[in-house]
Amino acid sequence: MLDFFQSMPSLRTRTKPVLVENPGEASRTLESILHAAAAAGASDIHFEPKESGLLIRFRLDGEMQDFYSVPLAHRDALLARGKIFGGMDITERRLPQDGRAVLTEGGRRFHLRLSTLPTLHGENLVVRLLDQSMPAQSFSELGLTGPQAKAVNDALMGPAGLILLTGPTGSGKTTTLHAALHALDYRGRVIHTLEDPVEYEFPAIRQTEIREKIGLTFASSLRALLRQNPDVMLVGETRDGETAQLTIRGALTGHLVLSTLHTNDALSAIPRLRDLGVEPFLIAAALRLVAAQRLVRRLCPACKRPHPDHPRLAAQHRVTEGQFFEPVGCPACKGRGYRGRLALHEVVPAQPLLSLIAANAPFEELVAVRDREGHATLWTRGVEAAAAGQTTLAEVARVL
User: Could you tell me the pTM of the whole model?
Assistant: First the structure.
């Protein structure tokens, strides 16, 4: 199906929409789009209803790309086919729905998560593709430096405590947390995850999918899980005060707990926990490590070229080694100049901060200790990655 994808230029260069010949072709058209997205490495597909038809876009390396256009006459047929494929009710168009399906492409197996949301011109359908054949990555493959990987490993080897990973939606937190779980010794340990949704299935781990519609929330699941006495718990997201309190309680009662928060950097997780109602002395007693993560696009190695303004940029960012590059675009990257993504990390062990956390010290004092200990910020890691030719300063600035 890759040939099919390559035969579909961006809508920016097309004057006429691609047509579905008749409503009976909706099934074949949907299948072609799904296989093309999987072959191209898209993370999700957006079916966006417009007054004039249906615009279909792929998210490639974190950026949306126009891919396919369906005329108004066939818009509803294709959306209905997508809902049938995901096991949703095609007669219900007023309320959001969720569905799931399985797709095989190029020997790889994908779990698809589908969701609909009513809009002015019809239902918006989003399909998320989760590659189940993707092996768990090591910390070095994820982009952690040697000292960062050692700090994470040291925290994982502890018998109990809380490890927090922060970052916005789509920053790769789930991939990093699963890599952390795979770094643990499964033998003789019970590992259980609470996820919304379960993105990747692991035979050696017990996994529970959160279903808030029926009352299976993070808080209620975590309360029940604590009674089952696992050794390691992964709480997909700490969203509210009750979940935060239970997460801390688990870390203080002999469990190793991994969880995520939505904050701008690693240290912001500490005031965020305070905002959720956790007492500072409890945070200090439980916390072992905080980390932050972002994804930047990786330069295409086939066409990148040295940046003509490298000397000025190197002086501005105090870089003495390496070379800044800029994107060009070639057939290998389909003219985008980027191919794949790279994770930037900020990793801060909690030990030097514990007395300040317990004393509810100002945020600036936490930052001063982090800098004194030499832990690189996300921006520092981004500049280092750009100087190593892995990405560009413009891309780092765009993300951070």
Answer: 0.84
Burial class (CB in 10 A: 0-12, 13-18, 19+), 339: buried
- At 222 the three-state DSSP class reads helix
By three-state DSSP, how is residue 253 classified? Answer: coil
Task: Give pLDDT tens digits for 142-178.
Answer: 889 999 999 999 999 988 999 999 999 889 898 898 8
Alpha carbon distance 204, 199 (integer Å):
15
Residue at token pair 């982009």? 143
Residue 12 burial (10 A CB sphere; 0-12, 13-18, 19+): exposed
**Is pLDDT of 338 > 50?**
yes
Angle between helices 241-252 and 218-226 (to 10 degrees): 20
Collect all residues with Cβ–Cβ distance below 8 Å to 171 and sequence separation of at least 6: 293, 294, 295, 343
DSSP-derived pairing of the beta strands 108-119 and 305-306: unpaired
Mean pLDDT score of the chain: 89
pLDDT digits (tens, 9 = 90+) for 371-396: 999 999 999 999 999 999 999 999 99
Contact 262, 167 (CB under 8 A): yes
Six-digit token string for 283: 């945070």
For 69-107, what is each residue's pLDDT tens digit? 889 988 999 999 999 999 999 999 999 999 999 999 988
Q: What is the pLDDT of residues 20-45, one digit of tens each?
A: 445 468 888 899 999 999 999 899 99
Residue 332 DSSP one-character state = G
Q: What are the angstrom distances between the C-alpha of 378 and each of 243, 348, 387?
A: 27, 11, 14
DSSP class of 211: B
> Could you tell me how far CA 379 lies from the centroid of its own chain?
19
| pLDDT tens-place string over residues 1-12 | 334 334 443 433
Least Cα distance to 47 among 131, 121, 130, 109 occurs for 121
- Give the contacts of 167 (CB within 8 A, at least 6 positions apart): 173, 260, 262, 263, 292, 293, 294
CA distances from 395 to 114, 168, 249, 400 (A): 30, 16, 40, 9
| DSSP H stretches of helix in the chain | 2-6, 26-40, 72-85, 139-142, 146-157, 173-182, 218-226, 241-252, 269-275, 280-286, 310-316, 354-358, 363-373, 378-387, 393-399
